[in-house]
Specification:
Elements (H helix, E strand, L loop, with lengths): L2 E8 L9 E6 L2 E4 L9 E4 L4 E4 L1 E6 L12 H10 L2 E6 L10 H11 L5 E7 L12 H5 L5 E3 L8 H11 L5 E4 L12 E2 L2 H6 L3 E2 L1 H18 L3 E3 L5 H13 L3 E6 L26 H12 L5 E3 L7 H4 L16 H12 L1 H6 L3 H7 L8 E12 L18 E11 L2 E4 L1
Length: about 400
């Protein structure tokens, strides 16, 4: 379809460009030439922003095995509605995404989705950190991202050998690094708030020790490691120094870590129980500095759907996780004044593309959104099968209006 986008403000990683007309056809968007381009559809984009298609490096579905939380189809609906052209899905299904059978099943069911799903295959069987999966066999299915998703690779021997295996095909290891024994029984950040409310805390040390150890292993083995959802001040400093040293290391942060702190947990809202937990204001400021100076490459949704029963219970017993795709743009609107639109867009386009090693050729996907449109996140607008979010039932600002991915076009 040949579409004229009139008066669109296009955002790149450096600027919010002045409004002008663009032409979209055959997966390409270019400046409009009246004599050259034949229009089939015209869209008034006055007041709208556009950018290259968004990429999420961390989201979860439930299929196979946990379809009641999120099926492949429902995840596809949520991703498209949220403006994402590509998304890395975690392997924490039942069974885990750990063999050719599961990989082929997901690829077949996802082939018709608007969003391209990039599979993070399990590095160890059932994501338990013990026996290796058939990494080389899975790579033959086109998979090059490996990790255990929500489970940390806490066994240093396993992590070392996985890094060595992945170098055979230039794969990348995604790891949510923390020491599970230092975080044992923890429910929220260890600090003044956890002490006041009497809840077992998870210290920054659990993350800091794991990242320090994993960087030392990376120095020894070589290879590439991507740290997911970092949350502490020292983690940022460690990764910053590793990058200066020239190690092949990248990192991302959950968008909600830039909005909430542990002070928001004083009323025990289980929808705010996430892993890693919301940290202190000092940690949040370090994360923001890390985004600004390039230490942190990407911002992720960390979309983790949970059913009603696993969240509607005592805080100590409730499952970790929050859905975060449809609220991603409203969260960016909240952060835009401090971080700027060019930086935010960079962290969901060029940054994730660099982590994944995608070609830096002209993009064939685009997202167009209205940062000022108000809408209510409720049962009618929610595309997910779950609703574990503190924003459910609230009025939000910022809505995706159109999205293109290759020759696919959707109007929302």
């Amino acid at each position: 379809m040949a579409i004229l986008l009139k008066s669109l403000q296009f955002i790149d990683s450096e600027n919010v460009n002045p409004a002008k007309d663009y032409f979209f056809e055959n997966g390409q968007i270019v400046s409009f030439d009246q004599e050259k381009h034949k229009i089939e559809k015209e869209i008034d984009c006055t007041g709208l922003y556009g950018s290259k298609g968004w990429i999420d490096l961390r989201c979860m579905m439930g299929e196979p095995g946990l379809e009641y939380k999120e099926s492949i189809e429902s995840l596809g609906d949520v991703l498209a509605t949220s403006g994402f052209a590509k998304a890395v899905i975690m392997p924490n299904t039942v069974p885990a995404l750990q063999s050719k059978n599961e990989i082929q099943y997901v690829k077949a069911k996802a082939s018709s989705l608007f969003t391209d799903l990039i599979i993070q295959a399990a590095a160890t069987r059932d994501n338990k950190g013990e026996d290796f999966t058939e990494i080389l066999d899975i790579n033959n299915e086109g998979v090059y991202v490996f990790g255990d998703g929500t489970s940390p690779l806490a066994n240093p021997d396993r992590l070392m050998k996985i890094l060595q295996y992945l170098q055979k095909f230039d794969g990348v290891l995604f790891d949510h690094s923390y020491d599970p024994l230092l975080a044992l029984f923890g429910q929220m950040n260890e600090g003044n708030v956890s002490t006041m409310v009497g809840v077992k805390g998870i210290p920054n040390l659990a993350e800091d020790v794991a990242i320090h150890r994993n960087l030392e292993i990376l120095r020894y083995t070589g290879g590439k490691i991507h740290f997911q959802t970092i949350s502490s001040k020292k983690s940022v400093a460690l990764i910053r120094e590793a990058k200066k040293e020239g190690l092949k290391v990248t990192a991302d942060v959950s968008i909600y870590q830039l909005i909430f702190t542990d002070n928001d947990l004083s009323d025990f809202d289980s929808n705010l129980k996430v892993m890693p937990p919301f940290r202190s204001n000092e940690d949040m400021e370090a994360l923001i500095d890390g985004l600004k100076d390039g230490t942190i490459d990407a911002i992720v949704s960390n979309h983790q759907p949970q059913d009603f029963d696993s969240k509607h219970m005592e805080f100590d017993l409730a499952s970790f996780g929050m859905i975060g795709l449809q609220t991603f743009l409203p969260a960016m609107v909240t952060l835009a004044e401090e971080l700027s639109w060019p930086l935010l867009i960079k962290k969901i386009t060029d940054g994730p593309a660099f982590v994944l090693g995608l070609e830096e050729s002209e993009s064939t996907s685009f997202t167009i959104f209205d940062p000022k449109e108000s809408w209510t996140f409720d049962q009618n607008s929610n595309k997910s099968l779950s609703k574990n979010t503190p924003w459910f039932g609230k009025d939000l600002l910022g809505k995706v209006k159109f999205a293109m991915n290759g020759t696919k076009f959707i109007q929302l």
